[in-house]
Design brief:
With 430 residues, the chain is α/β, with parallel strands linked by helices. The protein has a domain at 83-104 and 221-399: Rossmann fold (3-Layer(aba) Sandwich). It is 44% helix and 16% strand. The chain is built from 20 helices and 14 strands. It has helices at 15-21, 40-45, 51-63, 69-79, 107-122, 139-147, 166-173, 188-200, 202-207, 218-221, 226-234, 252-262, 279-286, 310-317, 320-326, 334-348, 354-368, 387-394, 402-408, 421-429; strands at residues 2-5, 13-14, 30-32, 86-88, 93-97, 129-134, 153-160, 179-184, 209-212, 242-247, 269-274, 327-331, 374-379, 415-417. A 6-stranded mixed beta sheet has the order 4-5-13-10-11-12, with helices on both faces. A 5-stranded parallel beta sheet has the order 9-6-7-8-14. The protein binds pyridoxal-5'-phosphate. Pyridoxal-5'-phosphate binds at residues 105, 107, 137-138, 215, 247-253, 301-302, 355, 380-381.
Amino acid sequence: MQLYSTNHQSPNVTFKQATFKGLPNDNGLFMPKIIPQLEASILSSFNKMTFTEIAHIMAYALIGDEISRAKLEEIVIDVFDFNVPLAQLDENIQVLELFHGPTHAFKDFGARFMARVMSHFLETETQEVNILVATSGDTGSAVAQGFVGVPGISVTLLYPSGKVSGLQEMQLTTIGQNITAIEVSGTFDDCQKMVKQAFLDPELSKSLYLTSANSINIARLIPQSFYYMYAWSRTKAPAKEVIFSVPCGNFGNLCGGLISAKMGMPVNRFIAATNINKIVPEYLDSGSFNPRPSVQTIANAMDVGNPSNFPRIEALLGDYDNIRNYLIGAFHNDEQTLEIISEVHKKFDYFVCPHTAIGYGALKNYLAEHHDLSGICLGTAHPAKFFDIVIKATGKEVEMPYRLKEVMGKEKISISMGNKFDDLKGFLLD
Ligand SMILES: *Cc1c(COP(=O)(O)O)cnc(C)c1O
């Protein structure tokens, strides 16, 4: 697999190089030079295959020149050892439940795959690898769970103090072993900036083998294409009549959908659903892309003021007109989000997390005017991760999965830090 930088100022790299570098030196993002289109006969056979069989075929088509077919099979079976159910709500709306992995958010797909791929490549390495992750809530623990106990790898998580849910914080700060949690007095954007700067710092890269694990890492992006294909294969709607609604923050999840479409998945359109950090819906409306500091919402994993995967959307879809033909923007504020959680619960006796609620609301509104389509909303986190918000909206308690119950009883261990790059640099060099 050859990957180029979206800024076109860095040389092409292999999948292995892109996985460990995270970001190209020109500050762009790695993108595959070629995204292979699967044959129609393969696409039409997906409805008889399991999730892991589909994932294996897609992974092999993309990176089969660097990891053997047998190894990829072992990796996908290992990584995706949880269910990916589709819940039918309205007649024409399903929720793809991507939250049955170890940390109960969709980040498990990308993070576990990336961790497993890195561990595979590192079997022949001798230097200790440091994985740096900025997290707005769910990424950090998913990555950490993928790497916990793996020899030769240490993970440093940066999260914005007071801006992740209590449960998310416990998931981040109670893992221990080779995982260190840093509590930054700042926003997620600050954390992201600190991490980005660390990779560009010559002094750090001389003394440490640093690598990124954010949604900017291509090894996290690729597996996020698998579940779109799987969900599409399970719908009975004719080709091009399915629309996906994606609750978006950094837009890595949506890029996974676009990759799946490039590989041949016949999809109508994608809805880019956000909270009031509505940079992309605004762009779709006006044509101007205006990143700005993020605003805190109850859908906190989507509190992103400068969606880092945006250049990939341009790389995959082209200019403004094409992007606008393919993506529909929608956003909801906190009050609307609570209403949607309540409505879905009343109508279907079904709990959604605030992020999923935003995707569902956007889809519902769109389908009200497009009756001929059917929609799949990506369920990005387990509602129990947002226990208090769900109670506030519905008056009811969601049942806690055992892994979440377990984490609440543990001791929080974190390192407090300012929001400046020098703070992080000093810590890493120490
Ligand atoms: C990360 C996350 C999102 C946003 O995904 P992006 O790939 O950053 O767009 C949405 N919902 C939940 C629950 C998340 O953890």
